[in-house]
Amino acid sequence: MRLPWQKNGNGKEPARVATDDGVILKLDDIHTYYGTIHALKGVSIEVRAGEIVTLIGANGAGKSTTLRSINGLNHPREGRIVFQGTDITDTAPHDIVRMGISQSPEGRKIFPRMSVLENLEMGAYQRQKGPEIQEDLERVYSLFPRLKERLQQKAGTMSGGEQQMLAMGRALMARPKLLLLDEPSMGLAPIFVEKIFEIIREINQQGTPILLVEQNALMALDTASRGYVLETGHVALADDAKSLRDNEQVRKTYLGEE
Amino acid sequence: MSDRASPQAPKAPSKGGSTISSWRASYRRYRRDHKWLGWGIPLAAVVLAFSYPWWGLEGPLSFIFNDGLGIDNDTLFIMSIYVMLALGLNVVVGYAGLLDLGYVAFFALGAYTLGWFGSGLFSQRDVHFLDTNAARLPGIHLSFWVVVLLAGAICAFAGILIGWPTLRLRGDYLAIVTLGFGEIIPDVFRNGDDVGGHNLTNGVRGVTQLDRPGFGQSISDATGGILPVRYTSLELRPWYFTVLAMMLITVFVNLRLRDSKMGRAWIAVREDEIAASAMGVPLMRTKLWAYAIGAVFGGFAGAIYGSFINGIFPTSFSFQISVIVLVMVIVGGMGNIWGVIAGAMLISWLNFRGLDKIGERIGSLPGVSDDFSIAKYKFGIFGALLVLMMLFRPEGLIPSTRRRAEFAEGEGQATLYDARA
Description:
Oligomer: heterodimer
Helix content of chain A: 25-40%
Structural class of chain A: alpha/beta
Radius of gyration of chain A: 18 Å
Strand content of chain A: 25-35%
CATH topology of the largest domain in chain B: ABC transporter involved in vitamin B12 uptake, BtuC
Number of domains of chain A: 2
Largest interface: A-B, 29 and 23 residues
CATH superfamily of the largest domain in chain A: P-loop containing nucleotide triphosphate hydrolases
Distance between the termini of chain B: 39 Å
CATH architecture of the largest domain in chain A: 3-Layer(aba) Sandwich
Structural class of chain B: mainly alpha
Number of domains of chain B: 2
CATH architecture of the largest domain in chain B: Orthogonal Bundle
Distance between the termini of chain A: 48 Å
């Protein structure tokens, strides 16, 4: 919790902040540290309603750290994060989930010894029991029919692609207003990568804005409407996805083209 | 057989254990086809336990629990106390996966709560509330039932106080901090006889002459004397029934917690803390609840134990108790209520009666010298049992399905016990 004399604090929690039209998430010059390591050195990004925004960059550029700053696992020391007009810079992770940001974490992090259904139910942990949860289960089943076939299976016994589907389905069970996806294509067979990105587009078309962190820059830029290129804790480039794809620097460095 | 096995069951029968696993499969099938066993077996166990004074004191089974004199004794009472303790620790260790090596602290705190609010320790005070003592004694004397609740509340408070700074630690570090806590508390009681001139614990002399449970004259009269005015050291049945009832409450709460939303959150925290947090599980609150609830049962057990033994001494609450209760939980099967009960009964019986009994039997065999005493080898036997148990059945006597899955999957590579806290 920010104290009144600290930067950006106004003594009231949570602070209402006026935002531009349509911007649901705004990172304003955030600096995040791991101990003494300065991982993010002033990152500013925005996600607007209905968009897919992607963060691309090399290993260690700060992509996952940006997500950890947003979801409260690693609070920034400077700068601020505003979600739907509320300052969430120092909000606890579970409160952030309740406010409507859910995620499919890096490495999927499903609960391996829980069944598929139990995993999905964990996604709705912050919600009250009710018919809406059943509706959302149905929605997840229609997006991922394979999960429905395996409801009672232990999640840890599924393939990597299925686990990724579960991780995304579980994140949707929170009925998010913003979905964070961390490396959804990591370690998956190409056919699964195609499928996952197809589903990402579908989720977005159903109305959920998505912040997508990816190493697979080509797929990410094809899917997203806008993108940010991170380099060693800075935003090196910010543009709409199409222009980034055509950017020579990006083509060389991230798309492997000459 | 294999096509009928449930999908969660480990597929291939482990090497050399095919007979056992086929028994297990047919037992599962039988249980599935006879749903009533789900409540029938526990009900039968409860009836057997409550009727024990009528069938167990004499007859062929009496040698199991009774001492050499063949009279009514306290073995089952102590066993029930340990079942309560083990079930309380099960919430912390089995459900939430927090390795707690200082559980005895809450047992001690519960007992000393009785010392404070149900004895002549503060003899300069004169406070009485629903007191069932025969005479109006000096000191603070609240009704025993109030003291039991107070013990639970104080232990929960202490649990939160201790847990708040320490539950941020992970695994081994938490174990060491709780170990320290378990050592500090008895020391505090040992040295508490002069806190700024006040005698709070009577030091090494301990607190004696504790209040006993009772229902008072009017309730006793109203029930035709079935509920006694005041428990005595001669008639042990009311004690036994009381501790049995408290144990049943503990079992019930354990069951409800296991199936609750909180129970699911504990499993999630145990499996993957980061993932649980990302799902919106408040980590600290969830862990603190486990710690506090475990502490409450330690407090309940401590209060009635102190009253039954009629003396509370700092030396009675040694590290050994923490360890033995943890052993009960692990040997029985972490996270499985029936396993923990079985483990607690088996180990407390061996500890307080069984080994002596077995020794007597062996000692009376022809050709065994008179000065042979198996009790001398108690800890050796215990140790050997534990080693064998961990080698051949590390998941416990009656493991929970989840724990069994954890062991099946981590075979050969994972540590035996990994408390992610």
